[in-house]
């Protein structure tokens, strides 16, 4: 019995030439072959599509990562010293490029702040449509220069609309008196100020054509004790949406004109276009808070990140579930590094941040930082700026970080948003928007990692003129 079974079993599976094959085996083998061929062709097709998509993505990334070189001639030093002054103080030092940048009578003025003839104008059709020109005046759909400095974007998925919030600085620039406590590293021009006008909001579907939605949080004209009284300081407003409460929550830097109040303010609205109701200001965790930003993570938790302790370090802490307050949890990060203007983003589970140094309205070198947890530890990776020239790279292309926007549908590609401050005429400060990408090895390996790069490099590419990929829809895919 055992024997018979064995034989039957072996004849059913042995199908060599000349031997007898059972029909079901042949049929099932054929079906198997057909299925395998079908599977193979499906995989091939998917692979082809993937390869095509990857190639397209690569071409787009390459286009965004192309850089342009910049060169300019320094004007000869102005005004000679008298022989007596030369004897006492030596010959006049040639001005630095930054001196020229800050000098509103410099011959280089138009290079850094091109005049009205070169504006970016969404109403103008043609070759320049959809192109960014960092540093040029940028008009809204009414034909007025966009007033959204130190700003940030919010994307509202339900309407596929971007909102750009920022400081409206459309007032006269004056030299604020320095009373009492000193501000950290205050250069001669860093105390220039404008009255608080309020927070502006613009909307766009394509990140290029911006419609003015008005001032969504106005300054206060009469009540001198109010945080938003026009004589105070309101900077770097950022808005996030709270899915639980259905409210749009704005956080901003609130200060007095001497920057001694060093607080954050909170406002809410039921609509992205306001009006926002101002709630209160506080020193978060009982600490000084100057340049700041907020970041909403994928799990819906939001965080406040701010420069503290005379700007010598940053603090990061989660907000309460309604986003209206901080919790008791806080961590000190980048301690002793003197960074401000934080702009955070996340890619493939890693947190990244761009910061500036602390030199008032004058530009300085940006740094990129990375962390596995938003609460730290944060590591500094080096200067992310690529292209232009050495001076461009060591001044963040003559601008200061404010926000980083993910380019929907292009994983790893972002827009770096920065302000080119014009201290002599703050309302005429310009926007520097450039492609930022994450990829490749960081160029400054960290001390403890034995020379092995731990993080991906963050790069911001200089372009005199650039655009988002043709056909980019501006909506989440
Ligand atoms: C640098 C900050 O980043 C700006 O927001 C502003 O506070 C200026 N300093 C004022 O000097």
TrEMBL record:
Pfam families registered for this protein in UniProt: Glyco_hydro_43
GO biological process, one term: carbohydrate metabolic process
InterPro entries: Glyco_hydro_43, Glyco_hydro_beta-prop_sf
Site feature: Important for catalytic activity, responsible for pKa modulation of the active site Glu and correct orientation of both the proton donor and substrate: 291
Region (Disordered): 66-96
GO MF assignments: hydrolase activity, hydrolyzing O-glycosyl compounds
Keyword ATP-binding: no
Keyword Transmembrane carried by entry: yes
Listed Gene3D superfamilies: Glycosyl hydrolase domain, family 43
Listed CDD domains: GH43_CtGH43-like
Keywords of this entry: Glycosidase, Hydrolase, Membrane, Transmembrane, Transmembrane helix
Basic residues compositional bias, start-end: 78-92
Transmembrane portions of the chain: 21-43
Superkingdom of source: Eukaryota
Family membership: Belongs to the glycosyl hydrolase 43 family.
Record's protein name: Uncharacterized protein
Organism whose genome encodes this protein: Colocasia esculenta
Lineage: Eukaryota, Viridiplantae, Streptophyta, Embryophyta, Tracheophyta
């Amino acid at each position: 019995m055992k024997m018979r079974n064995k034989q039957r079993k072996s004849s059913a599976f042995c199908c060599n030439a000349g031997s007898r094959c059972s029909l079901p085996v042949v049929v099932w083998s054929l079906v198997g072959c057909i299925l395998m061929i079908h599977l193979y062709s499906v995989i091939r097709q998917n692979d082809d599509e993937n390869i095509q998509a990857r190639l397209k993505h690569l071409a787009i990334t390459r286009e965004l990562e192309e850089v342009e070189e910049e060169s300019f001639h320094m004007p000869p030093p102005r005004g000679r010293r008298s022989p007596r002054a030369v004897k006492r103080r030596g010959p006049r030092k040639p001005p630095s490029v930054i001196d020229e940048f800050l000098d509103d009578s410099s011959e280089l003025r138009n290079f850094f702040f091109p005049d009205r003839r070169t504006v970016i104008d969404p109403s103008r059709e043609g070759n320049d449509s959809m192109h960014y020109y960092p540093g040029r005046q940028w008009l809204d759909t009414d034909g007025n220069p966009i007033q959204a400095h130190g700003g940030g974007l919010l994307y509202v998925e339900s309407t596929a609309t971007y909102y750009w919030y920022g400081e409206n600085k459309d007032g006269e620039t004056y030299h604020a008196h320095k009373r009492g406590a000193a501000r950290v590293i205050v250069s001669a021009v860093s105390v220039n100020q404008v009255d608080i006008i309020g927070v502006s909001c613009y909307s766009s579907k394509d990140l290029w054509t911006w419609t003015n939605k008005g001032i969504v949080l106005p300054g206060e004209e009469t009540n001198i004790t109010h945080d938003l009284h026009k004589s105070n300081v309101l900077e770097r407003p950022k808005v996030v949406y709270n899915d639980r409460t259905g409210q749009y929550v704005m956080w901003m830097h609130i200060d007095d004109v001497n920057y001694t109040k060093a607080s954050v303010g909170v406002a809410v609205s039921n609509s992205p276009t306001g009006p926002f109701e101002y709630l209160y200001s506080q020193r978060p965790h009982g600490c000084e808070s100057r340049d700041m930003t907020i970041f909403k993570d994928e799990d819906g938790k939001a965080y406040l990140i701010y420069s503290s302790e005379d700007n010598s370090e940053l603090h990061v802490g989660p907000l309460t579930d309604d986003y209206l307050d901080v919790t008791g949890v806080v961590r000190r990060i980048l301690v002793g590094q003197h960074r401000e203007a934080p702009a955070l983003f996340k890619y493939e589970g890693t947190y990244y941040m761009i910061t500036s140094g602390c030199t008032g309205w004058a530009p300085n070198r940006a740094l990129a930082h990375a962390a596995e947890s938003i609460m730290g530890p944060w590591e500094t990776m080096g200067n992310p700026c690529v292209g232009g020239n050495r001076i461009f790279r060591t001044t963040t292309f003559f601008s200061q970080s404010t926000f980083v926007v993910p380019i929907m549908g292009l994983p790893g590609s972002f827009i770096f948003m920065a302000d080119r401050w014009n201290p002599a005429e703050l309302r005429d400060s310009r926007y520097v928007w450039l492609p930022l990408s994450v990829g490749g090895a960081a160029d400054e390996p960290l001390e403890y990692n034995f020379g092995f790069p731990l993080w991906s490099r963050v790069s911001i590419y200089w372009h005199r003129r650039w655009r988002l990929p043709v056909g980019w829809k501006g909506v989440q895919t």
